[in-house]
Amino acid sequence: MLRIWGRLSSVNVQKVVWCAHELSLDHERIDVGGAFGGVNTPEFLAMNPNGMIPVIEDGLDDAGDSRFVLWESNAIVRYLSARYGPGTLYPLELHERADADRWMDWQTTSYSPAMVDAFMQLVRTPEDERDAERIERSRKAAERATAVLDAVLAKQPYVAGQRFTMADIACGCATHRWLGLPMDRPSRPNLERWMAERHCCK
C-alpha cells in the first residue's frame, strides 16, 4: 500500500494525490505540515531531513513496515507514474518522456516561482499588509508563463502531446492554484479547455 504524508491544501501534496487517483492506487494520506505540524518530529525527519511535505512510503507490508521512502513532489509523481503507469502517465517513448520531463521541470523552475509572490500576498498576507507592487510583478510573470502554456495547448490536447501524462498533473496543479487567486486575468481558452477535461487536484 501507498502512504502519503501531507495536508491536502498543499499544492505539492495535491500533485501526489491526483497522481494516485489517476493510477487507482490504494493509499492512505496523513495530515502533516502547516497547521497540522508534525514535520519536525524525529520520525518525520528520518523520512525527509528537510522537514517538508509531501513524503511517500510505498510498498507497505501487512505490519506497516515501509519498503521505500521518497520526497520531492515531482520526483514522487515520476516514480509513481513509472512504477504504476508505464506507457500511460509515464511515456515509454524517449522523446515523449523527455518532453513530459521538460514541462515538469518548467513547472518547478519557472511557472510556480512566477506566481508565488501573488499567492503569498493574496492568500497568506492580511489585506492591510499586502504589497501591491509585488503582486503586480508576480501577476505579470505568471501571465507570461501562462501564455506559454496556453500556446502549447492550442497545438495539442495535452501538455506533452496527444496523451494525458505526468506533465499534466504537475502543470495542472500549478494552474489550479493560479486560477484560484482573486484577481482579474485574461481569458486563456486553451488552458481553460484543458483544465475542464479532468478534475484537477482531487
Quick gist of this model?
With 202 residues, the protein is of the alpha+beta class. Helices cover 52% and strands 8% of the residues.
Question: Any key phrases for this structure?
Answer:
flat; 4-stranded mixed sheet; 7 helices; 4 strands; alpha+beta; 202 residues
Task: Tell me what the structure shows.
52% of the residues lie in helices and 8% in strands. The protein is an alpha+beta fold and 202 residues long. Strand 1 (2-5), helix 1 and strand 2 form a beta-alpha-beta unit. It has a four-stranded mixed beta sheet with strand order 2-1-3-4, covered by helices on one side. The protein has helices at 11-22, 42-47, 73-84, 94-124, 132-153, 166-179, 189-196, and strands at residues 2-5, 27-30, 55-58, 68-71. It contains seven helices and four strands. The mean pLDDT is 95. Keywords: Transferase. This is Glutathione S-transferase GstB. Its EC number is 2.5.1.18. GO terms for molecular function: glutathione transferase activity. Pfam families: GST_C_2 (PF13410), GST_N_2 (PF13409).
